[in-house]
Amino acid sequence: MQDHTIVDRDEWLKARIALLEREKAFTRERDALSTERRNLPWVEVTKPYDFITGNGPKALSELFGDRRQLVIYHFMYGPDWQAGCKSCSFWADNFDRNIIHLAARDVTLVAVSRAPLETLNAFKQRMGWSFDWVSSLGSDFNYDFDVSFSEDARANDAIRYNYRPSQFPADEAPGISVFYKDDDGRVFHTYSTYGRGLDMLNAAYHYLDLVPKGRNEEELPYPMDWVRLRDEYGKG
């Protein structure tokens, strides 16, 4: 950790107030960016997608429940994986306590993975989660939303992730996609984000951004090397 200048309270307040002006400008810019995000044009989803749920097969339109807005977290969990992605699990630890608040604002949150439903349910029980998690196994959904990559695409360097050609190192990737359902039951894709665009959905990272050491990832082999499944911290 780098050495820090030590000052008296008055000097600290002067520096803090100067930083506050930048923080306020950042907040205003973020508000403007959020408005632009909401004003993006929509694409009607006409291709049928079926999901395997605890209540039987469901179409994309049925994942909304009785709400108009749907947020899908693309959770990295391939059909033959032994466990869910530790990074996606880090994000998923933020979901459960927010579900009721999102519902109050007409939003349903669902996680989707290609692993079989029974596999997802077992891992969900291990992690102590209760949010809705459905399987897209057998569907093109993950491929169409650029979070799963075929062997052919990987072999031919034809992967697109985060809206550009990518050398993504796995056959599954994380992301979030947002949908809206109108009065006639039509479903529209309104937004998707990937990579660092997911940062804003992880409260732990925002806390770490406040403390002196920050995320403290600079010397690691890769930024999230320190992250563990919640029941594996302290196991070496």
From TrEMBL:
Family matches, as InterPro entries: DUF899_thioredox, Thioredoxin-like_sf
Cited Pfam families: DUF899 (PF05988)
Gene3D superfamilies according to UniProt: Glutaredoxin
Top-level taxon: Bacteria
Descriptive protein name: DUF899 domain-containing protein
